Amino acid sequence: MFDGPLTIRTLHAAYARGASAVAAVDACFARIGALNDPGIFLHLLPPELVRQAAAALPPFDPKHYPLWGVPFAVKDNIDVAGVPTTAACPGFSYRAEVTAPVVLLLLEAGAILIGKTNLDQFATGLVGVRTPHPIPRNAFDALRVPGGSSSGSAVAVAQGLVAFALGTDTAGSGRIPAAFNNLVGLKPTLGALSTRGVVPACRTLDAVSVFAGTVEDAAAIFDVAAVYDPAEPYSRHMPAYGRRIARIGIPMAKDLRFFGDHNASDAWVTTVEQLKATALDIVDVDIAPLLDCAGMLYAGPWVAERRAAVGRFMDDHPEALHPVTRTILEGASAYSAVDCFNAIYRLAAFRRTSEEVFSRIDALAVPTAPIFPTLVELADDPLGPNTRLGTYTNFVNLLDLAAIAVPGPFRKDGLPAGATFIAPAGSDRQLARLAATFFPSVGGRLASRAMVDA
Questions:
Q1: Which of 18, 72, 185, 239 could form a disulfide with 405 if both were Cys (CB 3.0 to 4.6 A apart)?
Q2: Mean pLDDT by 10 residues, the chain (454 residues)
Q3: How far from 199 is each of 79, 94, 102, 179, 429, CA to CA, in Å?
Q4: What residues are paired with 25 via a beta bridge?
């Protein structure tokens, strides 16, 4: 009864026929054991404890419990009471006393937590390999990076181990892994989902993100979790559905950057063809200012905010950090308070430019990732590919935009590619409707390589 992909729709259909949530939990743990990828989960909850949680659910009632019996995972920089939070740094580990509000909302809606997932240490990276633990295997090609920083969460969903997972996104960590594993990756408006109980990367830019198998699922999870948190200073009220998105901007040819990856470039050409085949109005847009803004995230004083998030732990335990993570955070010392304020002023100018861009379009469509690095390429150059991966993602959080990554047409080498739809803050629900319109044209269901080959 739980042999196929796990989605809210398929799970609830099974429950309506009499299946039990305990059986779904058993299926999840059986899949985890069969896959045997030690890099995905850093902490699995004891199976018997999870079974007890499933058995303790109220009677099946998806109207009042929209996530009833839906197994999920959370990135291991998000607190769950009684479970260690490590941010992929064992020396940093602490046992959380309180569950993060965003997780608690999901549990109250009937979801079942399976475990906590691997990540680029302290959520610093877009590659998914900056961890002292085994690297999660990309669901399509074990020789390629899984994408980061939310690597474990993405792979867990792509491999069908859970129905959805929470990640975090500061520079693209909820979108790049989605593209590399053929997933939907929802990057909400900053403050839409509470970040209280989340180990920060850049607190002013952090968002809790959602990985799911369908746009429908991602939107349902957003609706449950997007609740204003008065105890979180960055929390915001989200508007209800707005007007339909009809006019889509795509980058002008001069702004497209694929760094020699012709398979990525060709996949984007096919994506644009499919967009133009819809009833949407597609127009070319100059996004050069947005790409310039993207460079500020790592080549600017926001790296000092990442350093601040680690606090004195790095000073007292420098050896505990992954070498690449430590190198990045050490760069914070190059920036002064004057540099910080000058960057804030520059960002304000970029935000005004962004407003002008979105005054002419309802949403922007971009490739999610310009390249798809191999593990060997990352070993040879730990920083360069990561920098290039942020081309179309880094500016989104800086400019306070909402985004949703969806699978696009596959590359000619058989690997997944993706497109990301971006719109101003508060447009999350409109973006989901747009993504749902586009998604069926490229397959309508995500799957790992094993699922595709089957």
A1: 185
A2: 90 97 98 98 98 98 98 98 98 98 98 98 97 98 98 97 98 98 97 98 97 96 98 93 87 98 97 90 97 90 89 90 92 92 96 97 98 97 96 98 96 96 96 87 47 44
A3: 8, 11, 13, 24, 26
A4: none
Partners of 251 in the β-ladder: 285
Residue 207 carries which side chain, given as an amino acid letter? A
The yes-or-no answer on residue 75 being catalytic is: yes
The residue type at 27 = A
Distances (CA, A) of 303 to 87, 299, 340: 17, 8, 10
CATH of 247-398, one of 3.40.630.10, 1.20.58.1700, 1.10.10.10, 1.10.287.130: 1.20.58.1700
The model carries a pTM of 0.95
Compute the distance between CA of residue 100 and CA of residue 79 in angstroms, rounded to an integer. 5
User: Any idea where the domains of the chain sit in the sequence?
Assistant: 8-240, 247-398
CATH class of 8-240: alpha beta
Structure tokens at 438: 């586009």
Query: For residue 97, what are the contacts with CB-CB under 8 A and spacing of at least 6?
Result: 81
Percentage with pLDDT > 90 across the chain? 88
Q: Which of 75, 151, 187, 354 is catalytic?
A: 75
> Is 427 an annotated catalytic residue?
no
Q: Which of 150, 151, 153, 173 is catalytic?
A: 173
User: Residue 191 carries which DSSP code?
Assistant: T
Q: Which of 149, 151, 153, 448 is catalytic?
A: 149
